[in-house]
Amino acid sequence: MMSDKELSERYLVLEVEVGSTAHGTGISGEEDVDLLGVCMEPPECVYGLRRFTHYEFRARPQGERGRPGDIEGKRYSLRRFADLAIRGNPSVLVPLFAHPKLVHHVKSTGDLLRNQRKMFLSKAVGYATLGYLKAQYLAMVKNNGQGKDVKRPELIEKYGWDTKCGGHCLRLGLQGIELMTTGWMSVPMQEEHRQEVLAVRTGQVTFEQVCARITELDIALKRAVVDSVLPDEPDFAAVNQFLVKQYSWLYAKRYE
After folding, report:
1. How far from chain centre, in Å, is Cα 228?
2. Burial letters for 63-96: b for 16+ Cβ neighbours within 10 Å, e otherwise?
3. Are residues 36 and 113 in the same domain?
4. 97: domain range?
5. Alpha carbon distances (Å) from 84 to 16, 74, 76, 158
6. Same domain, 20 and 85
7. Same domain, yes or no, for 105 and 170?
8. pTM higher than 0.85, yes or no?
9. pLDDT for 111-163, tens place per residue?
């Protein structure tokens, strides 16, 4: 029997660079490389007893912080990816909008997934982004910016607070507003937005100023969701049809 690692490699249809470097907000020489992939699990994982939802890989043991240049990531089954996408998970949607230069591996199903991204989009993405933004903000403001658990002591020592978490909050807000307003998410970020996030990450903006900016973005994102060009719900029928067609094609090809 194939391991989850082998399965995720053999049936991989899309793998894209995500994270700070992909968004254009990474600090040179300080970032690792994050990948997000999609694979189509074989019949025994759909009809049989075996279950495969995702495979996660890391450069270092669990619990040990990554180091600059490390490559790590996660590969979801296509069905699990679709489930997370229709629920509005903003991180999962990034591969659908990423610039082609960020695509490390793609097959026909992966191409179709990216080209038909519209079926996943709805106001649900905006509401989910608001949830992520709130969670990140609450984590950031713990202990005057040091966070609930001090995960990045080097930033605390240098700037007095976790500037990476602050930058992440701004990115969520800015990209969420862009998506709700235009139906598109720029990956890498728009230059003006990228520079704003980088200013936070490099300590050019105070903790108090960042908190105020996040509050502004939260209000603007709530308004953008209400007025969004996107539908209230994703196109469930289109997503379902896509999954049935792609899995049917894969299994027919396997046994022809």
Report:
1. 21
2. eeeeeeeeeebbbbbbbbbbbbbbebbbbbbbbb
3. yes
4. 4-121+234-255
5. 16, 13, 10, 37
6. yes
7. no
8. yes
9. 999 999 999 999 999 999 999 999 999 988 886 666 656 578 888 889 989 99
